[in-house]
Amino acid sequence: MTATTLEKRMDKGLQAQVAARGLLLQSCWNYERMQNIGFAFAMEPWLRRIAGGDDPRLRKALSRHLEFFNTQPYMASFVCGVVGRLEEELAGQEEPSRIHRVASLKGAFGAALAGIGDALFWGALRPCCAALAVGTWLFLWASGQSHAALWAALVYLAAYNLPALWVRWHGVSFGYRWGEATSSELKRFQWQARIKNIRWIGFILALGLTAYSLAVPGWGPGQFWINASILAAALLARALGLATPRIYAYSIAAWTVVAFILGE
Amino acid sequence: MNMPALCAAAAIVELDAVHVGQWMVSRPIVLGPAFGALCGAPELGAAAGALFELFCVDVLPVGAALPINGSVAVVAFLLLAAGPAETPPAAAFPAALLLGSLFRRLDARVRNRRARLTALAEDSVERGKDPHLGRLILSGLGWHAVATFAFLYLGVLGLGPGLRWAWAAAPETLQRGLVLAFSNAPWLGLAALLYSLKPK
To answer: What is the pLDDT of residue B11?
Structure first.
């Protein structure tokens, strides 16, 4: 299939419908089949177009996509594109072997893209944006700016959503254009390098935020070392695998002992 | 805004965390200032938003994992501390973390129940009918929002007066321990942020 033929069949209207419905991918998330209903819902306009008014065929296609499916929600757009292309190629020749191929490719792409998406969006971009937003709030608030929290929230939303929306919109067309070659074509995005860079930016921001918090409020020398010790102890506890709320529970006990000793 | 309206608004915005969009409007750093302003405590809301964001930053919502719900926790904190109960923030903070953590159990039950929606869709297809996926999705979203609303409203309503009484009855040493822990909580949050971004 040539690129022009593909572009004609995959128009912006269909792309918009699939991308918009993809926003509801996890709306019926369940332990048995995870994102199955959301995925079938996202693909429905596409499958309807392929079925061309043949309702039994549409229902058959929808029921195939009610099987188990799970991936990172933003990266699902690529899977929608790939599956749409495969479904078009499958049209009119629904042998069990080809149907099975669509299902297995969908599962394989879902798993591979989940690995990339989880590391990129949950593991790198989200904490990086949190560091940026908290830093913005603290800096503006300390400078006496009004609406510091509003700016922090806007910075967070913009920094996070621009790449997320880009992936959600373009993922559908890229997946469709590349089809089964998506796994090799995805390498051009150099995900691992991007993830590493975002994490480094976030880490530098977090270091700056920590240094600013320790230094700027003008703690006395004694208080500075107390704060630094609490930070070091919390880092150690986190490295030992304790979740932050649990560390907080232990800190209540520790501070109560300190208050008891100081009280005596 | 009164408490039922605030809980209803929180339940709708919380859908963004997993179910709709995931634009991050349900993150504490966004929700905290907004609900702080609605509760008449914008400064507290902004500080709580930043603190809860840091406390929830290093947990990943991957696959079937259910991390502590930061949206529920920050709204519960603001309703407890700036609502009618006027719970001291040092007592409201651990209580809100507990509510955010307990919410996972309810969320797990709701997710389990949603498996029935697949059976409904498949049943419709087998009978040669349209599965009406849009309706199933609305029903899934509706049940989750109702469960979140009920949890928040009843949780805050039940916990608020109890916490205020417990605070008044608590020994002074425990009160001071809670206040010291709360005033040093930002360092724990910063440690979580540094740990989550540490170079691998």
So the answer is: 97
pLDDT tier, B153 (very low <50, low <70, confident <90, very high otherwise): very high
Residue of chain A with shortest Cα separation from B136 = A28
Euclidean distance between CA atoms A91 and A158, whole angstroms: 41
Determine the Cα–Cα distance for residues A73 and A105; give it in Å rounded to an integer: 17
Cα B44 from chain centroid (whole Å): 17
ipTM of the complex: 0.93
CB B29 within 8 A of CB B56: no
Q: Give the model's pLDDT for residue A217.
A: 67
Answer whether B130 touches A (CB < 8 Å): yes
How would you label B67-87 residue by residue, b for 16+ Cβ within 10 Å and e otherwise?
Answer: bbbbbbbbbbbbbbbbbebeb
Q: Which residues of B touch A248 (CB under 8 A)?
A: 55, 94, 97, 181, 185, 188
Interface membership of B50 toward A (CB under 8 Å)? yes
pLDDT at A9: 67
Residue B174: what pLDDT?
A: 95
- Minimal Cβ distance to B131: which of A62, A126, A161: A62
Of the candidates B58, B177, B195, the beta carbon closest to that of A259 is on B177
B57–A258 CB contact, under 8 Å:
no
Give the chain A residue whose CA is nearest to the CA of B57: A127
pTM attached to this predicted model: 0.93
Across the interface, do A28 and B117 touch by the CB < 8 Å criterion? yes
Q: What type of residue is B91?
A: A
Determine the pLDDT at residue B60.
75
Q: Mind telling me how many Å the CA of A134 is from chain B's nearest CA?
A: 6
What are the angstrom distances between the C-alpha of A204 and each of B7, B73, B103, B193, B196? 37, 28, 33, 11, 12
Cα distance from N-terminal residue to C-terminal residue, chain A: 83
B 145-164: CB under 8 A from A:
none
Distances (CA, A) of A261 to A251, A255, B176, B184: 15, 10, 11, 18
Q: What is the pLDDT of residue A6?
A: 53
Strand partners, A30: A34
What are the 10-residue block averages of pLDDT along chain A, 264 residues in total?
55 93 95 94 94 88 92 96 90 75 91 94 96 95 91 97 96 93 90 96 97 82 90 96 94 94 78
Count residue pairs from A and B with Cβ separation < 8 A: 250
